[in-house]
Batch of 2 targets.
Target 1
Amino acid sequence: MIEAYSDFDWCGDKVDRKSTFGYLYWFLNASISWCSKNQSVVALSSCEVEYISSSKVACQILWLESLLEELKMEYKRQVQLFVDNKSTISSAKSLVSHGRSKHIETKFHFLRDQVSKGKLELIYCYTKLQVIDGFTKSFKLERVKQLRNFLGLISIEHLD
C-alpha cells in the first residue's frame, strides 16, 4: 500500500507570505519520494494551503501509480494520504462548495475528484504524528531526532 503524508507551514515566508509545503511517499516500509518547497500562490487560510498541498500530492500519486504499473508492481489501489487538517478532509469529501472554500482555485479541486473516485483516501493524522513536519517547520533537536528515526534516516556521523 502507498501511504502519503502532506503538511505545510502557512505563510512561512515572511517576505512574500507564501507557504512551504512538503510531502512524503511511503511504500513497502520505506520512504521512496519526498519534497519540500514554497507554494506558487499565497493561501488565505490554513485549510486552503493544506488543500493545495494535498492536491499536488494527488497529482504526484497518479505519476507514482503509473510508474509502479510500468514496473509490474502490485499494490493496494486506494492510496492513503495523511493530513492534519480536518477542514481539508471535509472539503475534499464534500461536493458542495462552502463559503470557506469558494476562494480556492478550481485547478486544486483535482483532490476532490480523486477522493470521489475512490482513488485516494484522506485520513486525519494528529499534528504530533505528522512525520512530514520536519520538511516544513523548524524544531528543537529532540523532535528532529524523532522524525529522523521514524523515516529510517541516520546521522552521517554514525557512518564511521
Target 2
Amino acid sequence: MEGSASAPTHPHIELEPPEWQPRALRAGARGLCGAVAFFMVSFVFAYFYLRAQDPDKDWKIGHVKPSLVLGLIILLVLVASAVAMRAAATRPELTVSAGAAALGLALLSVVLQVIDWTTLGFGPESGGYASVFVGWTVCYAVLTLACVYWIETQVATAWRRGREGVVATPAEVMSDAPVVEAGLEACSFFWSFFVAGGLVMFVLLYVL
C-alpha cells in the first residue's frame, strides 16, 4: 500500500536551508501583524459605526463608565512589557532577565483585566459601547495569553541555549544563534505591535 498523499515519502526530498529560518521567522511575525491588524480594525470600525448610527440613543444604557485608573494601569503594564521584551531581543546580556520581566508583566496585565471586569457594573447588553468594550477586552486578553506562551518559549529557548553553551562546542553554539536571535526579534516586534493596538483602543474606550 502506498504512503499517504498528505506526507512526503520520497527519501531524497531536499530540506529547507537552515540559513532561511531567521528570515522566515521575521517575515512570519510581520505577516502575523497584518492578520491581527484586521482583527483590531474590526473593533475600531464597530466603535465608530455604532456610535455614529445610534437612532435609538442606546450607545450607552445606564451607568457605563469603566475605571480609567485601572485601564491606564493595564496599558502601562503592557507598555513596560513591550519595552522589556525589546531589551531582551536587542541586548543578549539581558535576554533572560528582561524576557522574564516581559513575561511576568504580560501575565499581570491579564490579571488586572480580570479585576477590571469585576468593577464594571455593566455588561455587553448595556448598549453599543458596552458591547465593543467587553468584546475587545475579552478577545485582547485571550490573545495576550497566546503572546505570553510565545514569549515564554523564546525566553526559555534562550535560557536553555545559554546553559547548554557551557558543554557545547563553539560551532554548535554559533549554528543556532541566528535562529534564536531571530525568534526573539520576531516575538518582540509582534508584541510591540500588539501593545500599540491596545493603546489605540485605550484612547477610544477610555478617553474619547
